[in-house]
Amino acid sequence: MSERKLKRSESEVLKKYLARISFYKKIESFGYELFLKPVKIYRQHGSVQKKANCDVEMAFYLMREIREYKNVVVLSGDGDFLPVLKYLREKNKKVIILARGPRTAREIRLFAGADFRDFEYLKYQIGMGTKKRSGLI
Q1: Is 105 in contact with 77 (CB distance < 8 Å)?
Q2: What ranges do the domains of the chain cover?
């Protein structure tokens, strides 16, 4: 088998992948159960696009398993989840939103209030971020 050096771009992709896996493992070590879905990667208008297409599946799972949890951490800032999140809160579920601050829908941030956590802040808090950024919750 011939050996070859990784291209810089391949090396960066691998580094990001390993960092993501390490992050997931760290979260699981705190007792969280993660449900991951692969991201679809495709080309559109000459650029690479990524899409998870998991909104319906996640909403379905949250509703189907409602009796199985008291607290839920939703890793999405998508405003489409608002009706489900409101319903969960009506059913006395603690709903925490974990998302990228700038990409989180305004209505989700308003709904979550103090129960909103920025991904970057979380990485910093669990010792996986490189620095604390100003303006994060």
Answers
A1: yes
A2: 8-125
Q: pLDDT tens digits for 37-86?
A: 777 888 888 888 888 778 888 999 999 999 999 999 998 999 999 999 99
Q: What SS3 state is found at 93?
A: coil
Host H or E run for residue 107: helix 106-112
CATH of domain 8-125: 3.40.50
Phi/psi for 80 (5° steps) reads -65, -20
The rounded distance, in Å, linking the Cα atoms of 65 and 130 is 36
Question: Is the Cα torsion angle 41, 23, 70, 114 positive or negative in sign?
Answer: negative
Which pair of structure tokens corresponds to residue 83?
């009706």
- Taken in order 31, 68, 53, 78, the sign of the CA dihedral is negative
